Amino acid sequence: MPSSALFDLPAPAVAVPAVRTPRRSGITVLSWGLGADSTAVLLMYLAAPHRYGLRRDLSDLVVVHAVTGDEWPDSLDYANRLVLPLLRKARVRLVQVARGGPEDADGVVVLEDSRAPRRVFAQGPWRLSDELRAAGTVPQLARGKRLCSIKFKGWCLDQWAAAEFGVDSFRRTIGYHAGELGRAEDDSAIQRRLNAEAGRTICEPYYPLILWGMERAAVEAYVLGLLGEPIRKSYCAQCPFSGVCASREAHEERLRAHPHIAADVLRMEYVSQALNERVALYGTTSLRKRLTEDGRNSAVLEAFDVSLEQAPHAVYEVRRIYHAARTDDCKAWHGKACRSPQWWCREPRTEKCVEGHPAGRWEPWCGGSAGCRGEAGKGQAWRSVRTVYEGTRAGAQLRLGELGREQGAAVVRGEHSGIERVHYLEQGPGYPAVSGFLVAAPAGVQDKQRPKFEERWALVSGRYGLVGEPVRELPVVRPRRRTGGVPRVLRAKELGGVLLIA
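Now predict its structure.
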C-alpha cells in the first residue's frame, strides 16, 4: 500500500521571508518515556503548573512520547489507566510520534496529536525490533552511545520539534533525577553545542527533578502516592541495559509474566549469536544463559523452544573480510582518504625503517625490505550474509549437514551459544584475513553485502563465490534518500476508526 494511503503528506510550503527572527515560543515540551521520572514531572506539572512557570490551564505545555514499538504491555496499561485520564481532564496536549521507516527520509509519523488521548500507541510503522530482526542483531553500543535510543526516540522528537517550532526556541524538560546529574550535564553540553552550531537557541534544557533534589526512591514514592500503584520501569523488552533499567530479578519476573515477549527476545538473540558468536544481548553473556541459571524460568524457556521449532528457518552463509588498519603514517601523509596506497599504509614501519629510511619531502620512502615491515593491525570488517536455504527447522539442519560434508567440514557448536555451524574457512593470522561459515537459524535476516565484496573476497581468500546456492539475488543497492535538511513530519490517517500505520 503506498505511503500516501497511510499518511497525510505535509502541507505545501507557504512562502515566508528568507530570514525570520527567532523568538521564544513560550512552550514547554516534556519528553514522556512512560517511566517513573518523566511521569513524576508530568504529575508535578498537573498539580502545580504555576510553580514551574506554566500557565494554570497548561495551554503552554506539550507532552511528546516517542513510540519505539517494543514497550512492555504493563507500562502501556499503567499509562492508559492512570495517567491519560489526568491528561484528558486537564486538556493537556499529547503528541505521539514514531519513525516512518528505516531511513530518515521516511520521516516521522504523528500517530496522534490530541488533548483527549485515549491510549498510548504500542507501535508505529517501523519498530526498533523490525530493524534488529532485518539486520540479525541485538541493540549495541557504539562509542558509548545508545544508538537505538538516538534513532528511535531522540531523532523523532527533534524532527517533530523542528517542524513544530521552526526557528523559535522552547523549553525542553527531561526527567533526569538527582542521581543522574552527570547525564544532565552531558545533555546540556550537547544542547549548548547544537545551539552554537545553529547560531540560535533551539531549546533550553530543564531538569526539575534535579532542581528539587529528588532521587529515584523519592520519585517512585511520589508517583505511588498520587496514582496509588507502583510504576514499572519503562524500557524496550530487548534492551541490553535491562540489568540497569531494572534489576535482574525484576526483569526476569517481567519476562515470566510475558512469556511470548520473552520468546521473541530470545529468538532475536539466537539469530544474532548465530551470525556472530560474540554478540549476545549482554555481550558474550546471553539472556538465555541467565534465564537457564534460574529454575523459575522453565516456562519462558519452553515458550522459546516452541517458537524456535515453529519459526521458518534458513541456512545463512556468513563471510567476513578483516582488513588491515591504516597506519599512523598513512593518516599523516595521505589524510582522510588514501588514494595512493603504499606498503606502509597497512603495515607500520619498524623503528629500524624509520631510522634508516627517513621521510622525504612528500612521504616516507622505502621499498619494504626485510626488517622494515611491522605487523598490521585489525581494521574494518566487511560482512556478507546470504540465504542459501529456506524451509523448516529440520530441513535447515539437514541442509547444513549436507553442505558441511560437501566441504569436508564438521559441524561445530559455538563456545557461548551452543549453536551449530559449519566453518569451511577459518580466519588465519595477520591482516587482511577472511572467514566463512554456514549456520541454520530462524529466517528473516536481510541478505546484504557491500557492492565490491566479491571482488575483495576473491583477492584475499583466493576463492570465488558462495559455497551454497543463494535462494535469491541480492537486493538492488539504491542511493540513500536524503532529507534535504527539512523535517518530514507525516500524520497517520484513520479509516473507519482504524489507524493506518503499516
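The mean pLDDT is 90.
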